[in-house]
Fold:
Amino acid sequence: MSYNSKYTGAEIEVMLDKVANGELVEKNEYNDTIAEIWGDKQENIADLEEIRAGAALGATALQRIDYPQLEDNLIDSGFYHSPDGMLYRSDMEDAVLESLNKADSALQSENDPIFSASPAASITAEKMQEWDAKQDLIADIDTIRSGANKGGTSEQTANKTTALSSSSTDSQYPSAKAVYDALQNVGGGGGSANRPIVKHGNADTIFTLTPNTVHQWEHVAALSLTIPQDDSYELEFFVLVEPNSSDFILTMSSNMQWANGDIPAFEANKQYEINIRGNRASYNVYGAPSPSGTYISYVENNGSDYILTDIIIDNNIVGLEAKVVPLFNKPSESSTYYSLMGTRKTSSTADTSIGIYFMSSGVIPYWSGAKKSSVGSIVNGEMLTIDIDYGAIAVNNTNPLAIFGLNTAGSVERIGKFRIYSLAFNDAAGEKVFELKPYKRIDGAYGLYDTISGKFYTSVKNQLTGA
Structure:
């Protein structure tokens, strides 16, 4: 016979076959069979309870209850045959089906008071759908993460670069490498910036350039350069040079031409950046770079130290601007004075005197021997702003200028204690010819830096201080 295995099972089918064939079924065999089936169902119910803990719909859950109906149907003892109440297979099957279909059978759904009282009681079908959508999103993120990880090690933040150079390799940062290579193909994209620099000595002035490298010379009288032929425009050459005078001579390979026929007129204390590509040269001109160090607020002497410059006051200079603090009281005698800066041929040639003198009568400028009106009063420790413009004068003094004192024929005297914040000399157009700013060099030396010529002037005794 055929059975519906959903309700029977192999053991009960064997027992039903015995009944159908007129065989006796022992009570113990019947009870053992039913008990074994019941145990299997108990295990299934336990599995379902685990499933219920994470996947319950609404507030109901799968649970089991006792099954008294089936237990009441168990035969007490002995063997039975049909006249005395033997169970036929059809009767057994009908009994099992009827029992399992009852509302209070072993497998049913009813409220679980423990589960219903827990936070999970708020779970709804809508919530479950929302979780399903999030699960799909998580799966998508996992897919994205898996793909990103394949290239993530080479593009991770730890390898990020802030400058493009030949060291930006594929293994370090492929994007930077790609950009760098592209820039190389179009000429570097940024002049000589971020390229390796080779500094040459003054004796190394005959040289064959190498591409994509900055070659630098400082304070040289002449330079002879050989540049490899490049008709493909793939190579680029850079030169930084500071001539020591306007007589500087630059010689390059005969195949080189200046772009647009613009040949530079070289000057001292200037820096020339020369860019060569495709056998053509172009250039930019800059003021001489400042020495390694930093600008400071002021520079101060101790009353005995001074600066001797190479600045010559000529008839191109018509005035000066300064901010200074005298660190002394006004002299009480006319014969006593201190020089902020000055020069003269001799002490007896008053007509050659150029300077700013702090005297008993005030702050007096001397301009080619001509004594001018006072430009301020002397107050110890107070700032004094000087701004004078006397027009063109006939200068007959070629002695260099001293600062913090007066250079008389090479001997510096009249040294006063000053704090200088700024000092500049102007021409007739109001342009600065010299602009001296307080500066501290990287080696710790204090002095004044001329932003026009790019020169740094420090003191003779190296006793200046600043802040």
About this structure: The chain has three domains: 10-117, 197-287, 293-466.
